[in-house]
């Protein structure tokens, strides 16, 4: 691999990994909605199809927007546990909660500030925490992605231009 291609690939991998960082969740989703979903929806509703085709192609070809799309492609499955069949969802919610409980236990033992005080095993209600997770993170994320992939001509644009 050429040195420059390797550098570009390395940066793209870093961008994708950082997209899973939950402290930047709303920043990523809002950028995606405002830079891609809303403008594409407005273009799709307009009647000037040939001009729109060019605008859609141009919008999807920008490196920034292409990065946002890939970040959402990583972000959605990263937080998608509530979308699994119920038996798997419950199992994995318990596993991730146990991981967070362990972190909180360690912080307590070291007398450190707790990064996630909601995950104190003595007070946490897993079903309520999952409802909050769905309300706070999942709904808007998947609504934004659904609006993007549900645009009638978008998949054709992607097929024609990128795949």
TrEMBL record:
PDEase domain mapped to chain residues: 1-163
Top-level lineage group: Eukaryota
Pfam families attached to this UniProt entry: PDEase_I (PF00233)
GO molecular function: 3',5'-cyclic-nucleotide phosphodiesterase activity; metal ion binding
Keyword list, A-Z: Hydrolase, Metal-binding
Gene3D superfamilies referenced in this protein's UniProt entry, alphabetically: 3'5'-cyclic nucleotide phosphodiesterase, catalytic domain
One GO term of the biological process aspect: signal transduction
Protein name in the entry: PDEase domain-containing protein
């Amino acid at each position: 691999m050429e040195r420059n291609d390797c550098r570009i690939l390395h940066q793209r991998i870093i961008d994708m990994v950082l997209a899973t960082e939950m402290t930047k969740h709303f920043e990523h989703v809002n950028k995606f909605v405002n830079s891609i979903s809303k403008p594409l929806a407005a273009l799709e509703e307009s009647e000037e199809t040939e001009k729109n085709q060019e605008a859609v192609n141009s919008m999807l070809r920008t490196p920034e927007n292409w990065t946002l799309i890939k970040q959402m492609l990583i972000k959605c499955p990263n937080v998608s546990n509530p979308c699994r069949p119920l038996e798997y969802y419950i199992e994995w919610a318990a596993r991730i909660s146990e991981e967070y409980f362990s972190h909180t236990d360690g912080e307590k033992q070291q007398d450190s500030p707790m990064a996630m005080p909601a995950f104190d095993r003595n007070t946490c209600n897993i079903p309520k925490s999952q409802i909050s997770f769905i309300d706070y993170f999942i709904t808007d994320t998947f609504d934004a992605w659904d609006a993007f992939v549900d645009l009638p001509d978008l998949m054709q644009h992607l097929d024609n231009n990128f795949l």
